[in-house]
Amino acid sequence: MHHNDAFDAQTRSAIAINDYRRSSTRRSKNSLNQDSHPAKKQTTMPPSLTRHKTVYPAIAATAPALSQMGRTVLITGGSKGIGFAIARAFATAGAARVILVARPSVELSTAEDRIKQAVPSFPGQVVAVPCDLGQVEQVDRLWDDLQAQGIQVDILVLNAAFSGAAGPMLQPDWQQTWTLFEMNLRANLICATRFMRSVRSAAPSSRAILNVSSCFVHDSSDTIGFGAYASTKTAMASLMHHLANETPREQVQIVSFHPGFVYTEGLQEVCGPEDYDWDSGTAFLFFCVGFSWLTACSGFTRELRRLGCVAPGQIPARTIRLGQLGRGRHGLHARHAGGCRLLEAGG
């Protein structure tokens, strides 16, 4: 190669390199310029997570957007504990009728007076119905009587459950575990079946089934002694999930949630107040009112969207669970139809 040819080749290479560098610089500047104009580039910000320990305006039962005016609510196990707190929340939201179903007890007989005392402004009716949910005949009679009276239940809260005595699942034998399945699964299944039957025979309306789940459904690391109870609650949550898959949201909104690790009267028989790091269930119980109204574009739905659980313009998630991922960790979990999205957003 001639010396000048070599020089020319080197020169051309240098020029090419410089041209490349200049073009790269221009691309970088253009990229920076584009980034400086938000209108030319859309960014998606992750939802901001705020942890709440008390009720706040968006979920308060007194919020106008969450009004339950004109609606009838039936709560199993509604005479005490979480069930009674849920009843109180619906009374606060102005429900027309709150039906409490539970075994005969002093708590059930005094439930109406206690709700009236807790919510003096409640204009509706409290109906206490004695019923042993472990007896199929009594559960059927409950729904037969409602039908005979022309009472249409708008919201069914499946709260009743029996934890049983603490101990190994198969001791003394399997029958004790099976008894829990009859109480916690069969009774609730019958109630859900009768409710769905009444919905299908009525005019289209916004109705809901709320299944009160358990922290054991989400965290099975500490279920020793309560394996049978945990199994029934897990089975019930799964049953509701699949029922939701079969049911149009516009017909019935089906929700499973758990109110946290709350120390209730029922737990006093098996453990003490100092045995665990208990949660305060007050804030979570008021979510029931919002959950029951998910079929409408209400303030509660907007709150779910604000938390990032539901995209704008999208129908709310069919199955939502409020509860622990682990000891001391709470979150609002939204699972979409394919079960592919799980988001912790609050607590």
From TrEMBL:
- Spell out the Gene3D superfamilies in the cross-references: NAD(P)-binding Rossmann-like Domain
GO terms for MF: oxidoreductase activity
UniProt xrefs under Pfam families:
adh_short
Which keywords describe this protein according to UniProt? Oxidoreductase
* InterPro entries the UniProt entry points to: KR_dom (IPR057326), NAD(P)-bd_dom_sf (IPR036291), SDR_fam (IPR002347)
Q: What spans are recorded as compositionally biased (Polar residues)?
A: 30-47
**Top-level taxon:** Eukaryota
Residue span(s) of domain Ketoreductase: 71-265
Residue ranges of the region described as Disordered = 17-48
PANTHER family assigned: DEHYDROGENASE/REDUCTASE SDR FAMILY MEMBER 11, DEHYDROGENASE_REDUCTASE SDR FAMILY MEMBER 11
Could you say which protein family the record assigns here?
Answer: Belongs to the short-chain dehydrogenases/reductases (SDR) family.
What name does this protein carry? Ketoreductase domain-containing protein
> Which species is this record about?
Aspergillus coremiiformis
